[in-house]
Amino acid sequence: MTMYRDYWPRQRESFDLQWIRTVAPTTPVITLQDMKDHARISQSNGDATLLRMIGAATESAEQYMNRGLLTQTWQLTLRWFGDVIYLPMAAPLQSVTSVKYYDTTGALTTLATTYYDVDTVSRPGRILRAANQSWPPLQSGKLLGRVQITYVVGWATADLVPERIKQGIRLYVSWLDADRDGMDPNGQRGREAAESCWNDQVYTIEPTQTPYGYGDSCLV
Q1: How far apart are alpha carbons 194 and 198 in whole angstroms?
Q2: 77 touches 22 (CB < 8 A)
Q3: Is 17 exposed, middle or buried (0-12, 13-18, 19+ CB in 10 A)?
Q4: Ranges of H-type helices in the chain
Q5: For residue range 25-51, what is the model confidence (pLDDT) as tens digits?
Q6: pTM for the whole thing?
Q7: Separation CA 22–CA 24 (nearest Å)
């Protein structure tokens, strides 16, 4: 029996996690009229600026909480398979579109769904090696992005986004609007008020791997 020395991480070797959003949401978490009602704004000459601020506030909320809020697609690349792979920004996780890997010939191959289970309840969502399955071997010598996971995160509609999160976005926009030049010495209080609504944070978790010599997932 030999170990997948080129296919499985050695002790203290990084999975080299990288993730990027490939498809952005098509609707805002809060509408322009919602924000104007909150800020008691009746005129329309500043609508374009408010829309940009709503976008900036939403990005800040997602970055602060490590969560995608409305339906959007992400891709995670990593150097190795792991028995449990947590998906960044996936709280909530809607679905996993595909798991691809570079096989021993260097061909990018789609992994059959029978190899893994999808957990949409975990925070963040995750995929797990299915029972009685072993991950396929990877291309030897390739270090970057040998495994690619594409997945969809976020709530399906803005109505499902928790009101506390949306209130934080409103407060963040109000702060941006009140301190447009960023020079107010007390301006941080507005941002802190918004962030206090975003305390339901989800942290990035490294994949877990069965240690060598335990179980059958790293042996051939």
Answers
A1: 7
A2: no
A3: middle
A4: 32-39, 47-65, 163-178, 188-196
A5: 999 999 999 999 998 888 888 899 999
A6: 0.86
A7: 7
